Amino acid sequence: MTTADISHHPKFMAKGNVYLPHLAVVERIIDETGDTKTFQLNFKDEKLRNDFTFESGQFGMLSILGIGEAPFCISSSPTRREHLECSIRKVGRLTRALHRLSEGAEIGFRGPYGNSFPLDLLEGKNLIFVGGGIGLAPLRSLIWNAIDNRDRYGNIDIVYGARSPADLCFTYDLEAWDKDKTVNVATTVDAGDDSWTGRVGLVPVVLEEVEPPAKNSVAIVCGPPIMIRFTFPALERLGFTPEQILTTLEKRMKCGIGKCGRCNIGNLYVCRDGPVFSYAQIKDFVSSEY
Amino acid sequence: MKYGEMEQKLRREARALLKEGRVDIIIGFENGSLKFTTTPLITSDEADIDRLVINPFINNNLSVFLTETKGRVGIVVKGCDSRSLVSLLQDNKVTRDDVVILGIPCPGIIDLDKVEQLAGKERDEIIDISWAEASVVVAVEGERKEFPIQEVLYDNCLGCELPTPKEYDILLGEPASSIGVDNQADSLTKIKQLKDKPPEQRWSYWRNEFNRCLRCYACRNICPACFCKRCFVEESEPQWLLPVPKWQDNLIFQVTRNIHVVGRCTDCGECERACPVNIPLRSLSREMYQIADELFHYKAGMDKDIPPLMATYEITDSEDLVK
Amino acid sequence: MKKHKIKKRDLAKLLSEWSNEFTILTPSRAEGATKWTKWDGVDTTFLDWYRNTTVPPKALFLPAMEEMFSFHRDKEGYHIEAPLLDTPKQLVFGIRPCDARSLALLDMTFRDAYEDPYYLAKREGAVLVGLACTRPYDSCFCTSLGSSPDDSSHVDLLLTDIGDEFLMEAITDKGNKLLTSTSFTETAGKAAETRAKESKETAYRKVTRKINVEGVKDRLLSCFDNKDYWEKVALKCISCGICTFLCPTCYCFDINDEFIKNHGERFRNWDSCAFPLYTKMPVENPRPEKWQRLRQKVCHKYEFYPMNFDVIGCTGCGRCIRLCPVNWDITLALTNLPAKAECEQEK
């Protein structure tokens, strides 16, 4: 997959002042782990609620007016439209403030921004999802999307891990996917606890144990930088070419639309040319910039 | 001023220091890429040593590089720079054994802005600037103009309290006499003018000045005394100041910075020189320096064996500042 | 397009006439640093000292600090007050060719993919009256980057100094309109054109600083991982924002909210890739070291901008060289780039 194939960007909200947020209500908050919550959102404006569309892989700039704004991937699937879901990990001033919100609170939303997973190129292929920690959030959108359009794709394998059982996100989805006979799930943790009876091992290691076939497959990887750095070589050892590996990257962002300059990897902006990239696109800069 | 001799001695000593492995890196000055400028030379390569220079344009305070340089350093310092170095020793940010101090007796550094004003020509249109006995000769197209030294040196040089480093390993020349002995008042002219104004006028003066501050942080980054790994303006929890350059926040930033470096600031004047929009920052830092002297009888960087000013407390300390 | 001329002593009258339609902006040093400010209606003595301003004209279109919108909160929730994005009619008088070119370079970013309404609104209403250089600095290197002291490519009207007069060449329709709307100019004859040609050629020869940018995009790509080179080159950099803030083509900005007693504003303000926290994420910082940030700055202008827009993102105005407190010089860094073979060895 080339840059041209991947870096298209549908412009839903291109009309008007692109920097003005739309107000959305936090309808429900789900506790994923000790430091991660999923927000279920809906726009205040009814027309927007009905008209809003997005594609798997895209993100929104969420803000608490008066505190700040940051990018969060949309972890719900466009095939399930009751509400928009964004998962938020508590790491700084804005996210701590987001975690203090109660259901019913109003936040700002700008988006959807970025490119998306190239569904037309994935059609007919086996999909291997490799996720770590909260990295499952952007993958989740595509996983449900693929399951809701199951006959378009080949095998679906999911390898997912977190530091510990308490750090596993979307456990309710993992259960549902595990029950689905058309999906293979391998969940692992870096270190177990007293009640954990599942796999123990780092995600790249478990991936090589699962040994998904590279033929006619695409791997989609998302997780902390250290996991990504070890997963790429593992996939290459399994026979995946850099063009067969997709990832979705995260960078500090402020504008979300390729203007403020800060999210670049080489000449590509993660917010505008990404966040979905093929490993082939970013190979030159990955070692030094990510 | 025997610049040529000092330069030769510097190159000999620096080369020997590197060759004999007594230091890992040399920090000095070399000719800049613009006329009448110098630029820091930071090198561990013997082949670069012949580029080292000493002349009346070596304005940088090279001590600023010490806190981020690993290994043993041979560093070139003028009087004021050596005081910054001593201050860093007092704060335990630099270990004495890790530095070889190459001291330059300094008669003052030429302020190109003043030369431009007096000669009526800009720096790149001046043909030559040379130091005569007690004056500086500026050659422009068609004529030579001579100015007394006091008129072309930086303001803080006019108030110099230590032209020759007290703390050094190698002194590169004969001790210099201080121009500051007879010119203290001149170095404080701008500050005195401000102090003579009533508070409301001073407030609107600074409001006007800080209106154009861009928050480039050159003043902070060029200052050897500002060595915090994370400056208070970079904190987000709590966020003391927004990065947005409103004049109120710009003023608070600068005043807070001055409070944070009191007792470490040696009035080297780099903050004012670095400011790209000509805010008279030294008027604030020098005044802070005066206050430290008046209240606590303390001048930064004069003695490496005494504790830093703000790390000690005497029962007899003035409490007038708490009002 | 028309060619007129005007006596320098009539310039104030010309500007006054134009000020009926436009807000006139001229170089000024009234505020402590040379920058573009609203013309006071009288003074044209800036012609005596003006070479180029410290603060570039980008500040007129992408200000150091800009309110994006305001909002307030009451018991019904938040309310956002959308800004009125008017297109002020501004006439930027005396802009240098390098700075005019910088606006064209900025346009590429602010129109790309999504349109930036704040920048573009101001650009739409602006008219650029260029002034060809007669006294380039020793830090200027525009001629190496496809421009020149008399480059009229990106202005509406170009003035050239021909002694006690200016030659005025209309470049665009907007510029043509400016000439036809005034009564203080006269048609220029061959003599004036000849003097202008001489003035331009003299100025061109005065630009002595040159760099070779042939293949610089590829040279930088091959040097990207040469840590030794970038570390050495970055040693004296102090990571301040001067080169980026005062660069006419740098545009990185930050967005911050302020909120006091239920009322707030969202601002944008200049930011710099030189700052350590510029790209810092909670997990890690992609560019914690000075040399990585310096490499980003150089590569953004000479490698990434060409990759995205087919043009080098630098105009050779030389402000970064003149204003850097440690005299870090981008032309030296580029000239001394190791050859491809040497970089391959480093890998």
CATH topology of the largest domain in chain A: Rossmann fold
Order of helices and strands of chain C, N to C? EHEEHHEEEHHEEEHEHHHHEEHHHH
Number of domain units of chain C: 2
What is the average per-residue confidence, as pLDDT of chain C, rounded to a whole number? 94
User: Which ranges of chain C are low-confidence, i.e. pLDDT below 50, for 5 or more consecutive residues?
Assistant: none
Question: What is the tally of beta strands of chain C?
Answer: 12
Biggest chain-to-chain interface with counts:
A-C, 45 and 54 residues
Number of helices of chain A: 9
In CATH, the homologous superfamily of the largest domain in chain A goes by the name Nucleotide-binding domain of ferredoxin-NADP reductase (FNR) module
- The averaged pLDDT of chain A comes out at 92
Structural class of chain A: alpha/beta
Strand content of chain C: 15-25%
Helix content of chain C: 25-40%
Calculate the terminal CA-CA distance of chain C, rounded to whole Å.
55 Å
Just name the CATH architecture of the largest domain in chain A: 3-Layer(aba) Sandwich
Placed side by side, the strands forming the largest sheet of chain A appear as 10-9-8-7-11-12-15
